[in-house]
Specification:
Shape: elongated
Organism: Lichenicoccus roseus
CATH architecture of the largest domain: 3-Layer(aba) Sandwich
Strand content: 15-25%
Distance between the termini: 53 Å
Order of helices and strands: EHEEEHEEEEEHHEHHHEHHEE
Radius of gyration: 20 Å
Number of helices: 9
CATH topology of the largest domain: Trna Endonuclease, Chain: A, domain 1
Number of domains: 2
Number of strands: 13
Largest sheet: 4 strands, mixed
Protein name: TnsA endonuclease N-terminal domain-containing protein
CATH class of the largest domain: Alpha Beta
Strand order of the largest sheet: 5-8-9-10
Helix content: 25-40%
């Protein structure tokens, strides 16, 4: 049996080292528990997050894809994996520990607690009942508890677009490209491929994607494939 673990620091020395690494953006932040995957099929992964500036642990490929989308969305300010332990009673009154998958903070100040589940698992009556109890506890705290299913996370073209945009995360757009794009879009949005052609450089596509990832450009990438039909505008331009 294969066991992959991201362990929480236990000694004072380990906590100091983890805090220093977190401050310098070199390592994954500490989740609310050791992240463990016992199945040899489900491989533990870490998302290198542009938004968070660190590695985010994922217990499944569905979680990984969910974090890919969150990392790309402009309305998401931050997100954390396994942010806390919550204790809620089950139907028999027994107190159970629950580890939500993510805490998501939006740019408008709203906070949601996300639970990621495959569709078949989320539809099971006992799981629905458990989530209702957890949702009630979070509602008491003034927070929204959202069950995010695999079909929603992996709907297209959103997921493929998020992957494409994040593929430019290591690219640094030049000042010349940003200056050109700012002028080209000053009178209104342009189709992505037209703007790419106007830029006229080999790296134009990656630079446009990088500017989108960094929040300087806006595209309706959650609805439309990145291509001739999608319009690009300056992020702060009225729409």
């Amino acid at each position: 049996m294969v066991v992959n673990v991201i362990r929480r620091p236990t000694t004072k020395k380990e906590r100091l080292r983890a805090a220093r690494a977190w401050a310098e953006g070199r390592e994954t932040y500490v989740p609310s528990r050791n992240v463990i995957v016992r199945s040899p099929v489900r491989i533990l992964r870490e998302l290198v997050s542009v938004k968070m500036g660190c590695k985010v642990p994922c217990e499944s490929s569905i979680e990984y894809d969910h974090f890919v989308v969150l990392d790309t969305r402009h309305d998401v300010a931050s997100f954390r994996a396994q942010p806390e332990i919550i204790r809620v009673p089950d139907e028999t009154g027994t107190i159970r520990r629950h580890y939500p998958d993510a805490r998501v903070e939006f740019t408008n100040g709203k906070v949601e607690i996300h639970e990621v589940k495959p569709d078949k698992v989320a539809a099971k009556p006992e799981v629905v009942a458990q989530h209702a109890l957890v949702a009630a506890e979070y509602a008491r705290r003034g927070l929204s508890y959202v069950v995010v299913t695999e079909s929603d996370i992996r709907r297209q073209p959103r997921l493929d677009n998020a992957r494409l945009i994040r593929s430019a995360r290591m690219h640094r757009p030049s000042q010349a490209t940003w200056a050109f794009v700012s002028v080209a879009l000053s009178n209104g949005p342009l189709p992505f491929t037209a703007l790419e052609a106007l830029a006229g450089t080999v790296s134009a596509k990656m630079e446009l994607l990088a500017l989108t990832l960094r929040g300087q450009l806006h595209m309706e990438w959650e609805r439309l494939p990145v291509g001739p039909a999608i319009l690009v505008s300056l992020q702060d331009a009225p729409r």
